[in-house]
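User: Design a sequence. Structure:
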């Protein structure tokens, strides 16, 4: 597949999803970039903003398996990953897989579950496998976790620890729709009732992921990435980790491919920067990503 073919496929994906999630093309592209970069996505917003609809729509458009797990305060790790049950007929334990065995897992309202239940996702997100009773079970490929999170001040929420936040390559918010998009929703155009056709499949998506990793990153662009990373370490108590730096590069590569290029430019880094670093920097300043970009010159 050449870059023009990649761009045509990703354009069709974004267009199909935009027929359901109206007026949010930027967020759809960021979500797709996150998946192409091999990461996982955290969507933080108020209830009713379309977080679940976005997750379901992406799975439909990409032709992937989809499962939803509602995270509640009484959720147990076994409810997510599965459990081994003794089968008398064969005198052995049989593993019964949980909802995590899918391509796209929606961890809905993840911060309403206890930290113990949240941690059930850690191995799966990092290694794309789970271990139960000493046995390792590989997960389907591709494997993509989309977690939704209510604002931290809402009653009954458990903040995600930094170690788990770092497992999410990107964090985005949808926000309120613009007037035109909301009018269309009120007329039943788009939204949850729309069923888009799949324009992709698991095999094609894996090819797109491999292609994204091969997008060229010049030494000068790496200088810019390192300057951004180093600035966070000098200005903040906890700067970006090496894993965050790799994630930023991979997301910039994916964004470049979405834009139809086989090489990364600084604008690609800037397009994904806030979504990649915002949840990793321990600061109350909501404009920190913009301030960093404003202070670090392009080499």
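Assistant: Done.
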């Amino acid at each position: 597949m050449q870059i023009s073919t990649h761009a045509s496929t990703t354009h069709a994906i974004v267009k199909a999803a935009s027929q359901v999630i109206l007026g949010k093309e930027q967020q759809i592209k960021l979500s797709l970039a996150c998946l192409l970069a091999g990461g996982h996505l955290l969507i933080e917003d108020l209830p009713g903003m379309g977080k679940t609809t976005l997750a379901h729509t992406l799975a439909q458009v990409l032709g992937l398996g989809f499962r939803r797990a509602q995270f509640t305060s009484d959720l147990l790790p076994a409810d997510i990953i599965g459990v081994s049950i003794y089968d008398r007929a064969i005198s052995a334990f049989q593993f019964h897989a949980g909802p995590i065995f899918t391509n796209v897992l929606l961890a809905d309202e993840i911060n309403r579950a206890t930290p113990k239940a949240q941690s059930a996702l850690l191995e799966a997100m990092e290694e794309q496998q789970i271990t139960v009773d000493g046995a390792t079970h590989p997960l389907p490929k591709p494997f993509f976790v989309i977690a939704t999170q209510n604002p931290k001040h809402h009653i009954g929420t458990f903040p995600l620890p930094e170690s788990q936040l770092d497992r999410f390559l990107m964090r985005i918010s949808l926000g309120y729709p613009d007037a035109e998009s909301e009018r269309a929703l009120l007329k039943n155009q788009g939204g949850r009732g729309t069923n888009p056709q799949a324009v992709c499949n698991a095999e094609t998506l894996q090819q797109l992921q491999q292609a994204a990793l091969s997008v060229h990153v010049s030494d000068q662009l790496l200088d810019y990435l390192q300057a951004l990373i180093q600035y966070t370490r000098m200005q903040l108590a906890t700067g970006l980790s090496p894993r965050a730096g790799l994630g930023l590069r991979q997301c910039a590569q994916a964004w470049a491919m979405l834009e139809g290029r086989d090489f990364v430019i600084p604008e690609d880094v800037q397009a994904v920067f806030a979504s990649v670093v915002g949840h990793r920097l321990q600061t109350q300043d909501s404009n920190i990503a913009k301030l960093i970009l404003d202070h670090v010159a392009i080499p």
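The first helix runs from residue 3 to 18. The two ends are 32 Å apart (CA to CA).
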